[in-house]
């Protein structure tokens, strides 16, 4: 959980592991014996074993200070279509929605930071995007329609534009992609500890481990199976048997 605090002039961010924030929203505090760190232009406030935290009378903050705190927690990331002429020169963050046409697999930097390179097509225009750190480990597939927020546009030395993720980037599957398909399963395979179904019309569906983590031989003994598969781009989210 991340909290944003303001003294009316400066915004401080505080991170705490878990689902309970260190500070309550709308409450004013007096703090002693804390640590400050300036990381990537943002000041972080760290609470230690010796920190004293006192609640005090409410402090009034200007609307400008409140907006600055909100922006520090999650800066604005306007959505663009991809056809804007100034898309790589406007500055700030932006959000794109499009279909993944290519992924080059997760690679690691020398400092063991994961990076996922992908090619996203928006409004028939393609963009190269590098997702860094935790967001690079998002479960994505070629063909997924995704919404990626808080991308940083940049111009490479060869003059081409590219997007990089930021500390605020999120990747979500776009709405309207979940499908229900009734299928006759005639084959089962296990590839890299992940189960795959083959249908009678030669379509392959991926079954994640959290959906099925039993023995493949048990499924084979039940073939053929008539199932309803709830899926996104043939990545199964839920399985239901079809009553004959």
TrEMBL record:
* Molecular function terms from GO: glycosyltransferase activity
Keywords attached to this Swiss-Prot or TrEMBL record, sorted alphabetically, are: Glycosyltransferase, Transferase
Q: Does the keyword Glycosyltransferase apply?
A: yes
What is the name of the protein in this document? Putative C-mannosyltransferase DPY19L3 isoform X1
The organism named in the record is Labeo rohita (Indian major carp)
